[in-house]
Design goal:
Structural class: mainly alpha
Shape: elongated
Number of helices: 4
Order of helices and strands: HEHEHH
Distance between the termini: 49 Å
Strand content: under 5%
Number of strands: 2
Length: 81
């Protein structure tokens, strides 16, 4: 079995290491990253890191992620819709 470029199977040692993900993306000359569910899909800083590397993030904006991450803000936003 081929070892992962990102690291071991444990998420905290691999898939949550944004520097490794972005490094692999740059080496692979990717245009975009889809984070899946959870983990990095809820990390506004990762979205901004992608943008700084000219990699499109397929998901919510940093503003939306931060708004929904703050419970009081999310409730207020939901009420206003």
């Amino acid at each position: 079995m081929k070892p992962s470029v990102l690291g071991p199977a444990q998420a905290k040692q691999s898939y949550l290491k944004t520097d490794r993900i972005l490094s692999a993306a740059e080496i692979g000359d990717v245009d975009a990253i889809h984070p899946g569910c959870g983990f990095l899909s809820e990390n506004a800083n990762f979205v901004e890191q992608c943008a700084s590397c000219n990699i499109k993030f397929i998901g919510s904006s940093p503003k939306a992620i931060r708004s929904m991450g703050a419970k009081a803000c999310a409730k207020q936003l939901a009420k206003s819709m």
